[in-house]
């Protein structure tokens, strides 16, 4: 059990509530809104503040199982309430389905509205009996998005509703539910019904994923140097779990046999977090200190196949040089990011992170990437890539002058 959080402030109103499953006892000023309390006192900054008039919906959270505007809700009125912010859905199966659908349908752009949009979308997926576009659009009228035009958002919600109903998951009761402290029925409400339960995520099985030879659409080469002898480096490459811990976002779920691994890579972009799951076959040549990893994975409509050939040779000063040949083929919406130049640049940055973590592992230190890492952040990679190209352009410009 998590210990309760206790926050004290002189001359303020005491309030006790539950936030993301954790008891919180605090003293707040009467004018403090729930959104400010979540962000400033509890550091739950996934709840965004936009209009602060209850219009845009960016601040939407669950209060006693109901979507509520936290910018209009006084924290002092939430005595005994059960509050769930976007951070509280990390282990929620329904929210995982919505995040994956938002990713497939490109249902976010700047991402500012997305936390509140996802909270509202989850309520719709629970309540609506069928993926009625008109009803979804009407229900989303309280969540403003200035980027996407809503089409991808509506499609994502429709997909999740249709998929859940096809699996026999019925909508929650349409009866009027007792509302928490933000509702007009609070004074006359019957004892509150429990909020919709958080459904544990069952990791999809990858045991049936077929890994076969393929013709790469694109191939490129990379190399890096580490300050450890080739024998030690090649030996570490034989520990698939250890290697995965060195690559940002990568994870291994199972090793059914010495030459097969099942797992994937996590990709995190703001409130959207998805995992490309698949399997890989592994082959090693001890005499040549070389190996080959052949993998396949998918997430919704996107799929990828990849091949990594590596060889560990003598490097400078008693160290090692690791030479990589990478081939890949992408299918579905993700293919738009498969341009060779872009992939090569991003791969170069990933290889640099991998080499740094590999050296840390060989030195007996914990790598930055690991089981607890949030996942690969393409926005950070793209930003670094952009600044790198700007720096290169400025350097060429100075050279000309």
TrEMBL record:
Residues 13-89 form the 2Fe-2S ferredoxin-type domain. The keyword Iron-sulfur applies. Keywords: 2Fe-2S, Iron, Iron-sulfur, Metal-binding, Oxidoreductase. InterPro entries: 2Fe-2S-bd (IPR002888), 2Fe-2S-bd_dom_sf (IPR036884), 2Fe-2S_ferredoxin-like_sf (IPR036010), 2Fe-2S_ferredoxin-type (IPR001041), 2Fe2S_fd_BS (IPR006058), Beta-grasp_dom_sf (IPR012675), CO_DH_gsu (IPR010419), Diverse_Oxidoreductases (IPR051452). GO terms for molecular function: 2 iron, 2 sulfur cluster binding; metal ion binding; oxidoreductase activity. CDD domains: fer2 (cd00207), SRPBCC_5 (cd07823). SUPFAM superfamilies: 2Fe-2S ferredoxin-like, Bet v1-like, CO dehydrogenase ISP C-domain like. PANTHER family: OXIDOREDUCTASE WITH IRON-SULFUR SUBUNIT, XANTHINE DEHYDROGENASE IRON-SULFUR-BINDING SUBUNIT XDHC-RELATED. This is Carbon monoxide dehydrogenase. It comes from Methylopila turkensis.
